[in-house]
Structure prediction request, 463 residues.
Amino acid sequence: MTTLITHGTIISATTSQLADILIDGDIIKDVRPNIPHDQASRIIDATGMLLFPGGIDAHTHLDMPFGGTVSADDFETGTRAAAFGGTTTLIDFAIQPKGTRMRDALDTWWKKADNRATIDFGLHMIVTDLGECGLEDMDDMVREGVASFKLFMAYPGVLMVDDATIFKALTQTGKNGALICMHAENGGVIDVIVQRALAEGKTAPIYHALTRPVTAEAEAVNRAIAMAEMAGAPIYIVHLSSEDALNKVREARDRGLPAFAETCPQYLLLSVEELNRPNFEGAKYVFTPPLREKHHLPKLWDGLKHDHLQVVSTDHCPFCFADQKVLGKNDFTKIPNGGPGVENRLQLIYHHGVNSGKLDLNRFVEITSTAPARIFGLYPRKGVIAPGSDADIVIWDPCAKHTISATTHHMRVDYSMFEGFEVKGNARTVLSRGDVIVDQGRFEAKPGRGQYLRRSARGGAWV
Ligand SMILES: [Zn+2]
Prediction:
């Protein structure tokens, strides 16, 4: 099948151009004005529309076990919701349980996605233990296209690894070209503060935020970057939430270090007061790092604008309020950590970033698609509208108005963190490798069509 998208304005990370796009099968064949219509079997008129490379969400947790339950979206519902929002690639996280081989974890996550994913996906590997074979396993994963590893400086006894493990893993990526993604919070300190709060009978959701100070994040970001510098490896900080942590990344980048960081819509748009909602509803906003005081928000937007932050991802990790969040009714430490967001990333960043004048269109495309493609070894297959790239294209209606709500979203979760938020600008038609998968609110893709993406090491912007 050949498809011609006509008269749209194509936005890249650097340019905006009124042109047509010719697609042959999965791949973009030509991009230029006035491509003759007889070259295509299907014509899509995109007059008045913006054309973005498909969104790339580099941080999701589908079908993920946590605290005795499992995140509410699986690879079918999660990738479908992503598609509705204009995201055509996810990078999810496989988890290596302590004492096991990474290959087994990869197999487990491949099975979770098999016959379910409706868009293309890659996998990071969460390393909980290097054991005897861990460094070898990391090289093995890189050969399988798992070009990034996530380590935790938080959650002692569950996911946290010590500095020696972090340094060894960083050193290995210095050799094999993969990238370490760091959950940077000082877990040891936080645990002491948490135990103290519980002993004082402080069990409400708000204490989740009050026991995880920004200094614990900033300290860990600083330490992670220092260890990466000593190892001679790049580093990527996930879900950065505060000005204090941002300053550490900015200082490192100013010194020329290959330090990168992402933030998420919730840290840009919501603040700690949400956790004080009555009737336990604050639990809807329990995730880590926690929401911060309001004064951090403009600093994060500013960081995005000036490339101190490179990526917006979602950390999509939904748990239903009615039967999952409630596990922590009497103890905030038992509230499953995570919130839904994979469907709303482009809407929220477009409306609050582009419409409000905080970001230009090119920067919008860069932080939602091009930069994650480059950093995670998918570029130029993904992240750009150009001949030879996958035909992952969002036909974006800049005038479409939409009210975000759990009653209309496609994520399999019973609430929205952004309930009632009104946005202007939404995906009208979404193509993944040449297939129209969403068109004007209709879903047209089959589960299982999404492909596993083998990502390249050393694909990152530091090379
Ligand atoms: Zn996460």
Observations:
- Residues 214-231 form the longest helix (18 residues).
